[in-house]
Design brief:
Elements lengths: L1 H14 L16 H22 L11 H18 L4 H6 L8 H17 L3 H24 L22 H21 L3 H20 L3 H22 L1 H24 L4 H4 L2 H7 L6 H17 L3 H6 L7 H6 L21 H30 L5 H17 L7 H18 L13 H41 L3 H13 L5 H13 L11 H18 L5 H13 L3 H14 L4 H13 L3 H14 L4 H13 L3 H14 L4 H10 L5
C-alpha cells in the first residue's frame, strides 16, 4: 500500500507542472496537450487509487460540505448534458476549450486523489511548492513572449500569456500562484523559504498586472483586501472595520478619478494605463461582453426548459447565435463568434439553467462556509485560501475556466477539505475474497489502459494528423493535405467537428486548390458530406456548418443547394450579417440582382455601420451597370471599413473615379 500511495503522491506532484505543457505539433497547442496529459495521468492514478481503495477502506473519500457541493454540481452537469441541445458536445467539449462533462469528471477524481493521498501537511507543502515553481516557469515563458524568439509561441505582444495562450487565463492562473506564495510566506519559519515565497508573490503580482487584464487585477486587489480584512478581524475587529472602509473609499475614489480625469497626460501617453483605467461601459471590450451576455440571457429566457436546465454545457454559442447582436460586425475582421460568455455565472446560467447556477453558487460558497468553522485552528491557511478563492470568484466575473485554473480550484477545494478532516487508518478491505480482489484489479488495469488509449492517445493522433494537413495545405500540397485530413477524420474522435471545418477552410481559402485541378471536385463533395455530419452533430442548431456547406456548394456552382443551406443558417441566426453577404453572392451567380439588393438592404438595416453590407450592395449596382449608385456605396464601404480600401480604389479607378 505504501508503495502504491507513494506512486500516486508523486504523480500528483507531477500534475503541478501540467500547466507548462504546450504541444507545438498539435492544433490548439495551449489547451489540447495540457488536457490530454492531465486526463491520462488522472486516469492512471485513479486506477492505482481504486486498486488501493478495494484493499483499504480508509482511502475512500470523506463526504463533507465541500465534496457534497462538488457532487451536487457534477450531478446537475450530468443532468444538463442529458437534456442538452447537443449532448455530444456537452459530453466531450470542443477542441479549443477541452471542456465537457468527460473532462470535468477528471477534476472530481483529482479532488478525491488529493484529499485521500495527501494525508500530511508536508505533502501539501511539497505540492504547493511545485505549483508555485510551475507558475514561475510559466512566467519565464510569458516574459519570453515579449521577445521575438521562435522558441516561444505568441511572441511580440505587449501582454504576456505564458503557457496558457491567453492573457486573461494566464492572469487567473497566476492569481492562485500569488496567494499560495503569500500564504506560505506567512506560515514558513525558514528564512530561505520566506525569501522564495515572497519573491514568488512579488513576481506573480508583476505578471498579473503585466497582463493588463482588468478583471484579474480587480480580483487580485479584492483578494488582498479579503486577506488583510480577515487577518485584522482575527487580531483586532476594530482594525478590520477600518480596513473595510478604507477599501470602499479607495474604490469610490478610483472610479471618480477615472470618470472626472479620463485623459490626464500620464494616462493618455500610456497604452497600458489607458487600458487598465478604462472602466467605461462604452469601450469596445466591455460592449462586446455586454452584447454577448444579453444574447445568452435572452436565450436562457426562451422557454421553461432553458430557464431550468439551460442549453447544455459547452453550448453557449447556440443562444449567442440565435440572438446575435449585429453590432458585433463592425468590419470584415470582426470577432462574431462567442463560445463562452466571459462570465462564469452567466455561462452556467445560460448553459445549465437556474438549477446549474444554484449548484455553482453552492460549489463556490461551500469552501468559505467550511473554512469559517476552522478559522481558529488554522488561521493562516484559512485566510490565505479564502483570499485566493475570493480573487478567483471576482476574476471569473469577466472570463471563463480552462484546465489550469480548474486544477488550481480543485486543489484548493481539496486543501480546504484536508484542513477540516482527520483520516484514521482502517485496513479493512472493501472486498474480502482475495480472488475477487485480484479479478477486480485486473479488470481495472485493462479498463484504464483502454480508456487512456481510446480517449487520449487516439484523439492526439487525430489532432496531429489534422495539423499536418493544415501544414501541407499552407505549402500548397493538396494531395498530402487531403490525405492527412482523411486520416484524422477516420478516427472519428472528439475534435472531428473542428477538423471538418479546418478542411473546409483550406478548400475555400486563398491558399486552397483550384477546382480545375485533379481530385479537387471530389474533395469538395467529400467535405460537404463531412460538414453535413457536423450539422447532425449539433442537431441542426448551429449555423456555422451551414455557412461552410453553402460556400463549398457555391464554389461548385450548386447555387440552389447553397441557398438552401444559407436559408437554414438564417433561420438559426436571423441577424448574422455574414449569412446575408453570402446570400447576396449566391444571387449574383443566379443573376437575380433584385434579390441581392433586397438582402443587402436588410443587412444595412440590421447594422448601418457595417461597411461590408454597403460594399456588396455597391458591387450589385455595378453588376447592373448603375455606376453612379455603385460609386457612392463603394466609397461609403471603404470609409466604414479599411478592409475594402485597396479594392475600392482599384474598382473606382476603372470607373474613372477617385476614392
Amino acid at each position: 500500500m505504501k508503495i502504491m500511495a507513494k506512486f500516486i503522491r508523486y504523480g500528483l506532484y507531477l500534475s503541478a507542472f501540467i500547466p507548462l505543457i504546450v504541444f507545438r505539433d498539435f492544433l490548439y497547442p495551449f489547451q489540447f496537450g495540457k488536457t490530454i496529459v492531465f486526463r491520462s495521468l488522472i486516469e492512471i492514478l485513479g486506477g492505482a487509487y481504486l486498486l488501493m481503495a478495494i484493499r483499504d477502506k480508509s482511502y475512500l473519500p470523506k463526504i463533507n460540505l465541500v465534496f457534497g457541493a462538488i457532487l451536487i454540481f457534477a450531478s446537475v452537469w450530468c443532468l444538463t448534458t442529458l437534456t442538452s441541445a447537443a449532448p455530444y458536445i456537452s459530453f466531450w467539449g470542443t477542441l479549443e476549450r477541452m471542456g465537457g462533462l468527460f473532462t470535468f469528471l477528471h477534476y472530481i477524481l483529482y479532488y478525491v486523489l488529493l484529499t485521500t493521498i495527501f494525508s500530511k501537511k508536508d505533502h501539501w507543502h511539497t505540492f504547493f511548492n511545485f505549483t508555485i515553481l510551475a507558475g514561475l516557469l510559466s512566467l519565464v515563458y510569458g516574459f519570453g513572449q515579449t521577445t521575438n524568439s521562435t522558441f516561444f509561441l505568441d511572441t511580440g505582444s505587449s501582454r504576456i500569456s505564458g503557457t496558457l495562450g491567453n492573457p486573461a487565463l494566464f492572469a487567473g492562473y497566476e492569481l492562485f500562484v500569488a496567494f499560495l506564495s503569500f500564504m506560505l510566506f506567512l506560515n514558513s519559519t525558514s528564512k530561505a523559504k520566506k525569501v522564495f515565497y515572497l519573491s514568488s508573490f512579488c513576481i506573480a503580482t508583476i505578471a498579473i498586472f503585466a497582463t493588463a487584464v482588468r478583471g484579474s487585477i480587480m480580483g487580485y486587489i479584492f483578494g488582498i483586501f479579503v486577506f488583510f480584512f480577515l487577518w485584522a478581524k482575527q487580531k483586532n475587529p476594530r482594525i478590520s472595520k477600518i480596513i473595510f472602509f478604507i477599501f470602499i473609499a479607495l474604490i469610490i475614489g478610483f472610479v471618480i478619478f477615472t470618470q472626472l480625469f479620463q485623459e490626464p497626460s500620464f494616462i493618455k501617453d500610456s497604452r497600458y494605463l489607458r487600458r487598465v483605467s478604462n472602466l467605461s461601459l462604452s469601450s469596445a471590450t466591455v460592449q462586446t461582453r455586454i452584447w454577448a451576455w444579453e444574447a445568452g440571457l435572452k436565450g436562457w429566457r426562451e422557454n421553461p426548459k432553458t430557464i431550468a436546465l439551460g442549453w447544455g454545457p459547452e453550448n453557449f454559442s447556440m443562444p449567442f447565435a440565435k440572438n446575435f447582436n449585429p453590432k458585433f460586425f463592425v468590419g470584415m475582421t470582426s470577432e462574431t463568434f462567442f463560445d463562452r460568455a466571459h462570465n462564469m455565472f452567466i455561462e452556467v446560467l445560460v448553459t445549465m439553467g437556474i438549477v446549474g447556477l444554484l449548484a455553482y453558487i453552492g460549489l463556490l460558497s461551500a469552501p468559505f462556509i467550511y473554512l469559517k468553522k476552522i478559522l481558529r485552528q488554522e488561521p493562516v491557511y484559512v485566510i490565505g485560501t479564502s483570499a485566493a478563492l475570493a480573487a478567483y470568484v471576482i476574476h471569473n466575473l469577466f472570463i471563463f475556466d480552462t484546465l489550469p485554473n480548474l486544477m488550481m480550484l480543485f486543489s484548493l477545494l481539496a486543501f480546504t477539505s484536508y484542513l477540516g478532516v482527520s483520516r484514521k487508518s482502517n485496513q479493512n478491505s472493501l472486498v474480502g475474497n482475495r480472488m475477487i480482489v485480484n479479478i477486480i484489479s485486473a479488470a481495472i488495469i485493462v479498463f484504464v489502459s483502454i480508456l487512456v488509449y481510446k480517449t487520449n492517445i487516439l484523439p492526439a493522433k487525430a489532432n496531429h494528423y489534422a495539423l499536418e494537413a493544415v501544414a501541407f495545405g499552407r505549402k500548397g500540397d493538396f494531395a498530402s493535405s487531403l490525405n492527412q485530413f482523411k486520416k484524422s477524420l477516420s478516427y472519428n474522435m472528439p475534435g472531428a467537428y473542428e477538423y471538418r471545418h479546418q478542411l473546409a477552410d483550406y478548400l475555400i481559402g486563398s491558399k486552397g486548390p483550384s477546382l480545375k485541378d485533379e481530385g479537387v471536385k471530389e474533395a469538395y463533395i467529400f467535405t460537404i458530406n463531412e460538414i453535413n455530419k457536423n450539422i447532425a452533430l449539433k442537431r441542426e442548431s448551429d449555423h456555422i456548418p451551414y455557412l461552410y456547406a453553402s460556400r463549398l456548394s457555391m464554389n461548385l456552382g450548386q447555387n440552389d443547394e447553397a441557398l438552401e443551406y444559407l436559408n437554414k443558417a438564417l433561420e438559426i441566426s436571423p441577424t448574422f450579417l455574414r449569412t446575408y453577404h453570402e446570400i447576396i453572392q449566391v444571387y449574383w451567380n443566379k443573376e437575380d440582382y433584385d434579390k441581392s439588393i433586397e438582402y443587402a438592404q436588410r443587412a444595412i438595416e440590421l447594422n448601418p455601420d457595417a461597411g461590408a453590407s454597403y460594399w456588396y450592395l455597391g458591387i450589385t449596382y455595378a453588376k447592373m451597370g448603375k455606376i453612379d449608385e455603385a460609386v457612392i456605396l463603394i466609397r461609403k464601404a471603404a470609409k466604414l471599413d479599411n478592409f475594402f480600401k485597396s479594392q475600392a480604389r482599384a474598382i473606382l479607378n476603372n470607373f474613372g473615379q477617385e476614392l
